[in-house]
Amino acid sequence: MEMSPSKADSRGAYNPQPVAMRAALLGKTYLSGAGFGRHLRSALGLAVQSSGAGEVRALRDVSFEVARGEAFGVIGRNGAGKSTLLQILAGTLQPTAGEFSVRGRVTALLELGSGFNPEFSGRENILLSGAILGISRKEMEQRFASIVAFADIGDFLEQPVKTYSTGMMMRVAFAVAISVEPDILIIDEALSVGDIVFQQKCSRRLHELIQRGVTLLVVTHDLSFVLSMCRRAMWLDRGRVRFIGEAGACVREYVTAMSALAGNAPASTTEASALELAKLPEAAPLGMAGCERLGDGGVRVEKAWLLHADGTAAGGFRVGDWAQAVVLVRASRDVNGVSAGCELRNRHGQVVFATGLRVARRLITSLSAGGSALVAIRFRLELQPGQYTLDLGCGAGGDSDNTWDRVLNAAVVELSTTPEQEVVHGLVRLPYEISIGRPA
Question: Which residues, including other chains, have CB under 8 Å from residue 296's CB and lie 6 or more apart?
Fold first, then answer.
């Protein structure tokens, strides 16, 4: 299913802020089995007569804008064209079609360690990186202490880079990138390596840079990073833009599509005719008329309920209460492998709980056009008091015939605690045991 950019114009623009990056109908075609002349012209971005044979179109008609000071995420499966796009914007690769513009000093973290001389020490490579970026040696020496402190690799600073682990190399590369005061910072998966403490340190620094007006463009498979860091995001699929819009909506659209395509391999399915008869809840269903929906609706969430354990309509919950999400799924055409589920998010948009038929490895074998199923999910709210949003959805089919429907913010879950209850200090309350003993 091809989708148009959401709540954006054809270039993905969303506000009148000065534009830091703009792409218009960008395309990139790689040639295989061609002569040296065609390869050279393609690499230089010059026109090459298309033969059709042996061509790989990495990007097709990609258009978007990123405002100055915005954090913009790019997501998609491997081979979607994400890295190719970043290389073009960073100036290391020429497009074969379309136009793009980048305004300001650009620092790019693309392939880990690119631009580093493996025979040079960390110290020498830091100074070399500054020279490549057009920064004088004197300026780099003034910034050297802060770079070393952030990288925190100890005595390895004086060792050849070829002896570094990927995590150590990332530490140095990231420390240099954030120290040279870029206008635009482009990152391609670089933060996926390294330990969690350093990743958190990097995230805090990126937030600081964005607050100071630095533009961030990041390609990542870490969807939680996109949700916490980016205001908008773009989903690339097979070189084309599938979605541009608010980061949460983009991630949800992508996750839903990926779940419909694959998800967890189901261990078994249940024939619709073999399902036990279940009555619809007596409580009033959720009012979903004003909710944003994603998907094509080949299967659809027709009605839904959020209930207490006793089946009454949910007003508010206490920490530790059981809740029920009930979803009535209806098919508008014949579908196979039907699933339904729910997702609970906190105020930062982070998923704190998600489950459904696909996760439980129990799909409904098929539904004929007009057929329906009632799916009830019961879960315990061992969470920090506060407000959470509930997304509901369903899907069916495989790679070529997938279909889905997702209702965003179908309900707000209000969770409170009583004075006698134990305080939940973290995001969730896990089962635990504490023992005290006297040393032997």
Answer: 1, 403, 404, 405
Report the 10 Å Cβ neighbour count for 362.
Answer: 14
Domain covering 270-416, topology? Coagulation Factor XIII; Chain A, domain 1 (2.70.50)
What is the distance between the alpha carbons of residues 439 and 348, in angstroms, rounded to a whole number?
44
Angle at 396 between CA 390 and CA 400, to 5 degrees: 130
**Number of neighbours of residue 366 by Cβ within 10 angstroms:** 17
**Token pair of 423, please?**
């305080």
Q: Quick check: 85 and 63 in contact, CB under 8 A? A: no
Overall average pLDDT of the 164-173 stretch: 86
For helices 166-179 and 196-211, the axis angle rounded to 10 degrees is 10
Q: Helix 137-151 to helix 122-132 angle, to the nearest 10 degrees?
A: 130
**Domain-by-domain residue ranges, the chain?**
19-256, 270-416
pLDDT, residue 359, reads 81
Q: List, in order, residues 6 or more apart from 134 with CB less than 8 Å away.
A: none
Cα separation, 163 vs 43, in Å, equals: 33
Residues 6+ away with beta carbon under 8 Å from 224: 350, 351
CATH code for 19-256?
Answer: 3.40.50.300
pLDDT exceeds cutoff 50 at 5: no
Beta bridge partner(s), residue 435 = none
Other CB atoms within 10 A of residue 196 CB: 7
- Strands 240-246, 232-237: pairing is antiparallel
- Which stretches within 91-159 are classed as H helix? 122-132, 137-151
The rounded distance, in Å, linking the Cα atoms of 197 and 195 is 6
Question: d(Cα 173, Cα 372) in Å, to the nearest integer?
Answer: 54
Q: Which residues contact 395 (CB under 8 A, 6 or more apart)?
A: 256, 259, 260, 295, 299, 338, 339, 340, 358, 402, 403, 404, 405
Model confidence over 351-388: pLDDT tens digits? 889 899 888 888 899 999 999 999 999 999 999 999 99
Residue 152, CB half-sphere, CA atoms under 13 Å: how many? 8
Sign of the dihedral through C-alpha 294, 298, 301, 303: positive
Q: 3-state DSSP: the chain helix, strand, coil percent, rounded to 5? A: 25, 35, 40
Q: Rounded mean pLDDT of the chain?
A: 84
Nearest to 244 by CA among 99, 72, 112, 122: 72
Residues 6+ apart with CB under 8 A from 12: 5, 63, 64, 65, 232, 234, 241, 244, 245
Q: Angle 219-224-226 (CA atoms, 0-180°, nearest 5)?
A: 40
